[in-house]
Amino acid sequence: xxxxxxxxxxxxxxxxxxxxxxxxxxxxxxxxxxxxxxxxxxxxxxxxxxxxxxxxxxxxxxxxxxxxxxxxxxxxxxxxxxxxxxxxxxxxxxxxxxxxxxxxxx
Length: 106
Prior knowledge:
Elements: E1 7-9, E2 12-15, E3 20-23, E4 26-27, H1 32-43, E5 49-50, H2 51-59, H3 68-80, E6 84-89, E7 93-98
Antiparallel strand pairs: 1-2, 2-3, 3-4, 5-7, 6-7
């Protein structure tokens, strides 16, 4: 299925079909795996993306090692860190939390 418009959550947008991600209309450069993981977070709209689901989605992009999800998540956090918090929910997965201009979480 081809996406015909970007997925949006607050100030974040991602369009996997065009390999693009934005924050407030400013492009964020991401690797294909970071982009895929970012898309999962944006589409879940602040809800938890289970670890197993994220791992399965990354497996479709490339063969993974046991720690691969953590490695990709670490790199993604560095890329979008000033704009959002990607929280690990113990035993469950990850979720995207919007950070406002005063650096407080919503």
